[in-house]
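Researcher: Here's a chain I'd like modeled. Treat it as a single chain, no partners, no ligands.
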Amino acid sequence: MRRNLIRLTAVLWCCALSAAFGQGVTPVRVFTTSYPPYAAPELPQQGAAVQMLRDILETQGLQASIDFLPWARVMPREVV
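Model: Modeled as a single isolated chain. Structure tokens:
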């Protein structure tokens, strides 16, 4: 369970960092999996980890679009 949290956090931070150094005004599309209470579509603000990512991206002038998918579909996605 802790390993999954570490993976989720790593994915969210990598997306945030790559977006911060990217082209700037392009919306950022983030893929993650449901992992309550940190990230889930039914949670307020979609969870604490998602809200943290949104706050980080907002400081860079970017807007996140969060897509919740099963973990097996999240991991094979190409990071751009």
